[in-house]
Amino acid sequence: MTAKTFNTSLDVRWRDLDAFNHVNNGTYLSYLEEARIRWFARVGEPWVTEEFAPVIASSTLNYREPVNYPAMLDIELSSEKIGTTSVVVGHRIKGADGRLHCDGNVAIVWIDLKTGRPRPLPEGVRRAAELLAG
């Protein structure tokens, strides 16, 4: 990615494997969720409260190469687009050897939990996203 990135590492767990002995495609979404939560935790301001929360509006995952066990993965996140109520987060999942296993993005919308309608991004999230923008 040409943008600045947030990086975090995750170990592949035995339970992540499918019948073909590589990481199940759906598990990639869990890895990306964990990486986003770690990023949001560094925001330093609330990103989810009793009043608002993020929801995934869309996700794109391009599977490039299977991940076998055991493995340590490096997950990179960047901001591709920052809107009024949403942010598109780009992602790359790489192996310890630098090989690309998956890339793509997710669109995250912040909603008002009472109405279920979009609401402006929390200011801390907006600032954090701007730091990761290209």
Describe the structure concisely for a colleague:
By secondary structure, the chain is an alpha+beta fold.
The first-level CATH class name: Alpha Beta
Quote the beta fraction. 35-45%
CATH superfamily: Hotdog Thioesterase
Number of structural units classed as domains: 1
The first-to-last residue Cα distance is 9 Å
Number of helices: 2
Number of strands: 5
The pLDDT mean sits at 95
Specify the CATH architecture: Roll
Structural class: alpha+beta
CATH topology: Thiol Ester Dehydrase, Chain A
| Form type | elongated
Which descriptors apply to this entry?
2 helices; 5-stranded antiparallel sheet; 134 residues; alpha+beta
What do these coordinates show?
- The chain is an alpha+beta fold and 134 residues long.
- The chain has one domain: Hotdog Thioesterase (Thiol Ester Dehydrase, Chain A, Roll), CATH 3.10.129.10.
- The chain contains 2 helices and 5 strands.
- The protein has helices spanning 27-41, 123-131; strands spanning 6-11, 52-63, 72-82, 86-95, 100-112.
- A 5-stranded antiparallel beta sheet has the order 1-3-4-5-2.
- Strand 4 (86-95) and strand 5 (100-112) form a beta hairpin.
